[in-house]
Amino acid sequence: MAAAAAEEWDSGSEAGPTGDWPPPAFSPVNGKARTESEAGASVSGSSEAKVDDGNIQEAESSLREGLSLNYEEARALLGRLEYQRGNVEAALRVFDGIDLQAAIQRLQPSLSEKPLSKQSNKLRSDSSNSGSQHAASLVLEAIYLKSMSLQKLGKAMEAAKQCKSVLYAVESIFQCGIPGVMVEQKLQDTVSKSVELLPELWKQAGAYQEALVSYRRALLSQWNLDDECCTRIQKRFAVFLLYGGVEASPPSLASQTEGSFVPRNNLEEAILLLMILLKKFFLGKTYWDPSVMEHLTFALSMCGQTSVLAKHLEEVLPGIYPRTERWYSLSLCYFAASDNEAALNLLKKLLNKNESPNDIMALLLAAKICSSSYHFASDGVEYARRAVKDVKSLDGHLKSIALHFLGCCLAKKSKIASSDHQRSLLQTEALKSLNEARSLDHHNPEVIFDMAIEYAEQQNMHAALKCAKDFIDATGGSVSKGWRLLSLVLSAQQRYSEAEVVTDAALDETAKWEQGPLLRVRAKLKVAQSLPMEAVEAYRGLLALVQAQRKAYGTVNNSIEEEDKVSEFEVWQGLANLYSSLSYWRDAEICLQKAKALKAYSATTLHAEGKMHEVCEQIQNALAAYFNALSMEVEHVPSKVSIGALLSKQGPKYLPVARCFLSDALRLEPTNRMAWFYLGKVHKHDGRLADAVDCFQAASMLEDSDPVERFRLL
Questions:
Q1: Interaxial angle between packed helices 603-615 and 568-581, expressed in degrees from 0 to 180 and rounded to the nearest 10
Q2: Is residue 26 helix, strand or coil?
């Protein structure tokens, strides 16, 4: 009877077992009738009625006698009614009288005992169990509402402790976890709300480590949560891990099954949670939440795993994203993963005349991708010009970016021009576009940097030096490639000591892990100044740094920007070239073997091997090595120059072939002074003295402006 009466009260009606009790204008706390206006004021929360222990006890006694409830259950009902009417402080006074530990001790035996095997006893046990569950529901809900009351009063720490006591009570009552069946819905709702609320309260109280523990406990313990509740907790936990600014310790191994993945940091744990949420959606267990994919995009981008992100974007069911939007997002992922061809193919589909041919962002991305490759430079020019044409005239920033990419694509296209006249026109147009881009956006350092590179490659070192200084001013000297550019321009002007001072100053301002390219420039400056032993020491320092990075981060280093990396292969190759120039053949061979062990098939290594054969007068072996290098990299300029130089020494019948290789090398790299020099020798042997003079003059001019490292390596 008591349980049935309590259920009738719990259903939302204010009718008791003997008619309308208490009446609508009756306050169970104050124990007296109110006027209609007073009752309305109480419901709206504007009443400031004072609560005293005498009135609470009087109302409590009435409930216990009328509904046959015990002390805690009666107070739970009274407190809930006051909470629903907005009397938070009054509800809190009522809830304070509930002894949770005493309630746990009474409820634990009846809810923990196993059902009897006989049918008759089983029915009686189920009835008793239902009544005990309802009593537990009343008491636990009261403590949950007490926690909510404290939260509304701004007492987040006390609220969290009360909410935690609810979960402790549930664990004490259901020691084997909450069973999946035969659990009263009201009780399950209270438990679910408490599990969901606790970490939020800890966050409000500033106890972030407690919040982390509560999140993990919510997801790992047996609370019998439904999919929607679990989904909300997982999403909030992932957001907290990503943006909370608190470093979480890895989950305890004791809570993991054998062979399962254990996250090592916040980022990995957040990614794992977000992937679980996506899987739930794909299985139809929850609704689609676009913010989950947004958070996963951020997390995977942070750790450089954009190829994984592309896979998840491809798995999203059709109809959720417009296909053009999906193509653009996928192209961004593949571009970030250095798969430019896949990214460009997607953009071509997007920019088709039947899709979105005037999508400015897609046009700009396509132009940017094309600007990094000689083969796609012509396509890039077309995309950039379309972007310049379609962009709104008032949007100076976007127009500046379009002109910037147009200039870069034109510069790339000029490198493969079929004639000197066409190359000159393209170079002029490239500089014009870059200057116009800079005029629209004076403070864009990337435009200034690319202008400096273009001026330097066109042998205008004065303008290149000015742009390099402007770039350093624009970035505040915080970008190392600006200092490297300045050093290379100074080295091209034969001002090696000044270039070394700039490099040393940059090293002092650069983090240890990012010093690789600067150390490589310093080593090459030592070589240019004919200081071989100091160059060897510089290379040794660089090698130590690269090997330390490899041990610290492994073969894949996502914590250092690509432009700040120097591979161990490059260092061994540089040492091999240095020892070869000093005629230390044994040391050079050892360094080459080290380089081969890291990259077995490399045009650079094969070319160095050919040089060693050539010095030892093993002509056939040298030619074989050079041709093997070209088979690995068809446009490897040093190998073309070496083949042309070697064939020019083999007699008149080889001169046309030598001239062909040298001309092709100059087509790919017009500023290669050695190609001009050997082409001059070919012309001299062939009797074309005027052409030979022009080639020697070009080689001499280029020697006076030859940097220690190619500008395009920046």
A1: 10
A2: strand
